[in-house]
Automatic annotation (TrEMBL), chain A:
Limits of the FAD-binding PCMH-type domain: 1-170
InterPro entries for the chain: CO_DH_flav_C, CO_DH_flav_C_dom_sf, Diverse_Substr_Oxidored, FAD-bd_PCMH, FAD-bd_PCMH-like_sf, FAD-bd_PCMH_sub1, FAD-bd_PCMH_sub2, Mopterin_DH_FAD-bd
SUPFAM superfamilies linked to this entry: CO dehydrogenase flavoprotein C-terminal domain-like (SSF55447), FAD-binding/transporter-associated domain-like (SSF56176)
Protein name stated in the entry: Carbon monoxide dehydrogenase
Annotated keywords: FAD, Flavoprotein, Oxidoreductase
Record-level Gene Ontology MF annotations: FAD binding; oxidoreductase activity
PANTHER family (UniProt xref): XANTHINE DEHYDROGENASE SUBUNIT C-RELATED (PTHR42659)
Superkingdom as given in the UniProt entry: Bacteria
Membrane in keyword set: no
Automatic annotation (TrEMBL), chain B:
Annotated organism of origin: Nitratireductor arenosus
PANTHER family: OXIDOREDUCTASE WITH IRON-SULFUR SUBUNIT (PTHR44379:SF5)
Iron-sulfur recorded as keyword: yes
Taxonomic lineage from the root: Bacteria, Pseudomonadati, Pseudomonadota, Alphaproteobacteria, Hyphomicrobiales
Entry keywords, A to Z: 2Fe-2S, Iron, Iron-sulfur, Metal-binding, Oxidoreductase
Residue intervals of the 2Fe-2S ferredoxin-type domain: 2-78
Gene3D superfamilies on file: 3.10.20.30, [2Fe-2S]-binding domain
Name used for this protein in its record: 2Fe-2S iron-sulfur cluster binding domain-containing protein
Amino acid sequence: MNKFDYVRPTTLAATLDLLRASDEPMLLAGGQTLLPTMKQGLAAPELLIDLNAVSELVELSVTGDGIRVGAMCRHATVATSGAVRDKIPGLAELAGMIGDVQVRNRGTIGGSVANNDPAADYPAALLALDATIRTDSRDISADEFFVDLFETALEPGEMIREVVFPSCRSCGYLKFRQPASRFAIVGVFVARHRQGVRVAVTGAGSAGVFRWTEAEAALDGNFAQQALTGLALDPQQMLSDIHAGDTYRAHLVQVLTGRLVEALGARSLRVRT
Amino acid sequence: MMRLETEINGKPVAAEVEPRMLLVEFLRDQCRLTGTHVGCDTSQCGACVVHLDGVAVKSCALLAVQCQSRKVTTIEGLAQGAALHPMQQAFHEHHALQCGFCTPGMIMSAVDMVERHAGDLDEHTVREELEGNICRCTGYENIVKAILAAAETMRP
């Protein structure tokens, strides 16, 4: 690992000052991606700003119509939160499927979202749940936030404060995972909102997380597995690697979406691949 | 270099460390606590699991300086003198190891698992929760048996 300077501010204001005053800063949240990346030499910040002592970032609270999750909330916290399980059970379930126990004890929602790994789980939840990413300076809708592989709408010197989730009628997440890394080969999040169905897919898209709008339109008309019959994703828009080819991924998206819709229709979320 | 003051296995420890030093490097190279192992070094195998303020973490994915004013427990901190921790005893009795390389991490994860579930565990849950610990020898059978046995002993 390259050398770096390390600071551990305790307030958001001090964090932002540090972030804007240095040449090559990086924010350290849970570190479950960043530290392995730094070990490989793929990231080499001059200044590492540890967010783990900023108490303003760990709040998780219920709002009138949903939930606010602070950027430094750990996956384990979201997975076991009574408020999240009550209001948006699919979100708690997704958080409990990320990585493994030890990774969930460290990894954070802010870190996952800012990194925008094409196989990360949280981006699918944010997109399907129509979440808002609240930074130090503005609100960004999930539709605008996820730009491309590892690329987001965040500007240099900008940081995520919290993610705001509106509640929905029902939602769920189904994931076909790579057994060693536990990342999603394909992950599908389906949310039924009063305004309509949203389907977000992670792990599969060659430009990262995306909404499957054809499936949304079909499910708006008929929220049943059969509504997806005949719909197909273009394999050329899918990722392809040693774990799964593009045609296989396109097929998996359809299968998982169908199973999830069926499970949500039956009001049972205990479906596993 | 940075000043690090932390607590390891109940004892205060102070040292000068580089910010880039991982917790597992600090434990093994500086504290000579070599029970915590480095397996994959990519936070997948779980050989390096320790407890940070009582919570299981992978010490290869944590900087030593992040443990300032925190409490770290390693495999060396479990036994009370000559008396093994119930989980260590169960691993011994059920022969829950072959080469032994993954064992310290397995035991640290298992203790955390039993404590989180208040001793109320079944085989399915144990297997699911071992997802972050890889054993290449045993096929997990005796590890699962040992954890279930220890969960009985540790039941509050």
